[in-house]
User: Fold this.
Amino acid sequence: MARTETPRRIRGTQDIFGDEQRRFAHVLSTFERVRALYCFQRIDIPVFESTAVFARSLGETTDVVSKEMYTFEDRGGDSLTLRPEFTAGIARAYLTEGWQQFAPLKITTSGPVFRYERPQKGRFRQFHQIDAEVIGAAEPAADVELLVLADQLLRELGIADGVTLQLNTLGDAETREAWRAALVAHFEAHRGELSEDSLTRLEKNPMRILDSKDPKDRPIADSAPDIDAYLTPEARAFFDAVTAGLDAAGVAWERNARLVRGLDYYRHTAFEFVTDRLGSQGTVLAGGRYDGLIGSLGGPETAGVGWAAGVERLAMLLDEPPAAGIDAVVVPMGTAAEARATGIVADLRRAGVAVEMAYKGKMKARMAKADALGARFAIILGDDELAKGVGAVKALATGTQTEVAFADLAEALR
Ligand code: ATP
Ligand code: MG
Assistant:
C-alpha cells in the first residue's frame, strides 16, 4: 500500500520555534516599545493588494517587480500580489482611508512579506519586516527622527556596535536630473566594460549601476561622478540639516556616495544600516525619502520618508536569545496534591505569576524540567504540605527551601 507522503515546508519559508522564536519575538517587542517612545502609531494593512499598487509604486524595472513578486489571479479574475514590502500598501491606505487629515502621520507596522528569491542564509521567500514611515512631512526633521529611532532600536537590541549607518543624498528633482545625465555619459563611455545586467540598467534605470554587486561593474561604478557637484543650494541645505540633526542626536553616520534608490520619485535622503556579520545579506535596515510616491499613485503630491528592516536579519545578530524565564514550576506528588495543584496554578496565573505544572514522571525528572524551563522556583506539593496548607518553595539557583502558605504564594514568587 502506498504511504501518504508527509507534507513539506515550501522552499524559502520558515517554521519558527524555540531559541529562534525567542530572538524573533524579542526584535518585535523591542520595536513595539521603541516606536511608542517616538510616538509612532501602529497600523495594520492587508497582506495582498491589487498588483498595480506595487507595480506602479515600485516601478516595473526593479528586481522586486520584474522577478520577485508572488502574483496570482483570484477566483474573481483580479490580479493580486502578496506584499513584497510595506510602503506601497501604506501609501495606498493613506489615500483610500483619507489619512491626509492626520498628516504628518508617524506610523509603524510589521509582518510577513513575500519575494520569490533564491533562499540562502538571511534570505527567504516569506520573511518579516518591521517598518516605520512619516507621511506628509517635507522637513529634514522627519528623516532625522526616523534615523534616530532606527539607531535606538539597534542599540536596545544590543547590535548597534557592529552596524554602520551609511547615508547619501539623491538631491531634489533638478539635482537628480543633472546628476543622472552625468552618470549616463560616464557609463556610455565605459559601455564595453559593463556587465550584461548593467547594460540593461543603463537603458532603464542607470542609477542602479552604482550599487551593482557584479565585480565587473565595480571599477566603473566607483569612478562615476558623485552627486555633490550637482546639488542645488536647497538640496545641499536639506542634506546638511539631516546630518546636523544626526550629529545633535549623537547618531554616527558615514557618507556613501554610491548608495542610491533607483526610482524617480526618491528624493534627498537614502540610507542603509549595514554589517559585515551576515555575508552578502549585510543590509539590515534600509530606507529613504519618497516625496513623489503618493503622486505617482494618483494622489495629491505628498512628502514621505521611511525605512524597513528584516526581522530575521536583526534576530540573527542578537547575541543570546533572551531567556524564556518563567517564575515557577509546581510539582504535585500524588493524586490529592495534583487535584489541589490545579487550583493553585490557576490562582497564581491570575495573580500574574508565570507558572508551569510538572505532573508527569519521577521527582528528579520533574525538577530537571523546572531547570530546563528556566524557572526561578519549584513549588513542591506532597501529602505533608497539603496537610499544613503550604507549598515547599525551592529557589532553584541556591537550593534553599522554605514553606509558604498557599495564600502567600503569589507574593513570595513575584
Ligand atoms: P537585498 O539587497 O539584501 O536584497 P533589498 O534592497 O532587496 O535587500 P529592501 O527592499 O530594502 O531590501 O528591504 C528592507 C530589508 O528587508 C533589507 O534590508 C533586509 O534586512 C530585509 N530583506 C530583504 N529581502 C529579504 C529576504 N529575501 N529575506 C530576508 N530579509 C530580507
Ligand atoms: Mg532584494
Q: What stands out?
A: DSSP finds 15 helices and 16 strands in the chain. Residues 13 and 126 are 5 Å apart (CA to CA). The chain has a mean pLDDT of 94. Residues 18-37 form the longest helix (20 residues).
